[in-house]
From TrEMBL:
Protein family (similarity comment): Belongs to the GerABKC lipoprotein family.
Origin superkingdom: Bacteria
Lineage of origin: Bacteria, Bacillati, Bacillota, Bacilli, Bacillales
InterPro entries recorded: GerAC_N, Spore_GerAC-like, Spore_GerAC-like_C, Spore_GerAC_C_sf
Listed name of the protein: Uncharacterized protein
Amino acid sequence: MKKFFVFLSSSLLILTSCVQSRELENLGLTTAVGYDLAQDDLISSTIVLENFNPQIENSSRTVTAQSHTSKGMRQKLNLETSKNIVSGQLRVAIYNEELSSKGIYNLVDTLSRDPSIGNMIYLCVTDNTAKEILNKKDPTNANSNIGTFLYNLIEQNYKGDFIPSPTLHNFLTRLWEVGRDPQLPVLSITDDFVGITSMGLFENDKLVYLLPMDKIFYLNVLSEDMKSGNTEIGLPKGDLEKHFVKPAESMERTQEGNIIFITLSHIQANKDIKLKESEELTFMISLKLKVRIVELSKSLELGDPKTIEELTKVLNKKFKENLENTLYEIKETKSDPVGFGEVYRVMKDSKLTQEKWRELYPSSKFEVKVDTTIVQTGVID
C-alpha cells in the first residue's frame, strides 16, 4: 500500500510539473516596456517578451503597438503574439524624451496600479526612441534578454552610487512630495551600445533638462545618502606643483595644461541643508566627505602630511565651486531634485504648496561649505 501511495505521489508531481511547464510556455513574460510619442496624439508602446522555452537559446522578441492608453496598447499587443502577455517579470520602463517633456504621470500611475508589478522596477528616459533601445542586443551576451541587460545596467550604477535611485516608488514619492522633484537616468545609443549618458530632471511629471554626466556626482551627493561614490575631479596645479614627485628624466611624463586629475573612490558623504535665517531665500549646505585617492595624472608626495593638507584645501575649494555651479545650473531649469522646497517647508512654512514653491524657488541662493577628509592615499607606509 505504501508503495502505491509513493508511486501515486510521484506521478502527481510529474504531472503537475508538466502542467506548470506547459502553462509557462504559453506566457509572454514582459521584462521591459518602452513608450514613444506617435502621430495624432497616440502613444507607441514596445515590450520585450521572454518566451519560456528551454529548447530555444534566444527566445525573446519585441512587439510594438499604438493606442491612446496603456491598457489599449496591452490589448493590441496581445493580438500580435500567440503568448498571453503578463507583467509579473517587468523590470524596466523607458520613456522617450519628447513624450517625457509632455508629462508621464498617467503612464507611470498605470504601472503603480498593476498588482503584478512591483514598485521597485526601474524607470528611465531615452533621447533615442524607446523602440530603438529595446531592439538592441545585450553586447555581453547575444542570447540575453535586453530587458535583463538594462535592469542590470541601471542596478549596478545605482548600487554603486553613480546615479540616484530610479525606482517607481521613488519617482512617485518625489512627485507627490511638496518641494521636491523626480529625476531619472537617461539612456543613449553611442557607437551602437546602450549606456547611461545623463540625468533627466523633472518639474512635476514633465522632463525639463538633461543634466550632463560630469554633474551627476554633485547632484547625487546632495540628493542621496552616498556610501561608496566615485568621481574624477580636475584640480588647478597652483599650490600643488611644489608637492609633485620629481621622477628621473627618462621617466618624466609630459603633461600639458594647468590641471591635475584625481580619481576618488569609496566616497562617503554626510550632508546638512539648512535655511539661513534672513529675508533672503538662502540655503546653507554643509558637506562632509571621506574619500580615497585611487589615481592621479601627476604624482604627488602623498606620504608628506603637508601635501595632504594642501591637497585637502584644494579639494574643498574645487568641490565647493563645482557644487555651487551645479546647483545654480539646476535652479535655472526650475526643477528641484535636491529637495530645497522640502527644507523650506519643514523650517519655515508647514503649509507650503507646490505652486507657492514654484514661485519662490527661482530666487533661492546657495552657500556651500565642504570639509574633505582623505582617509587613504594608496601610499604604502
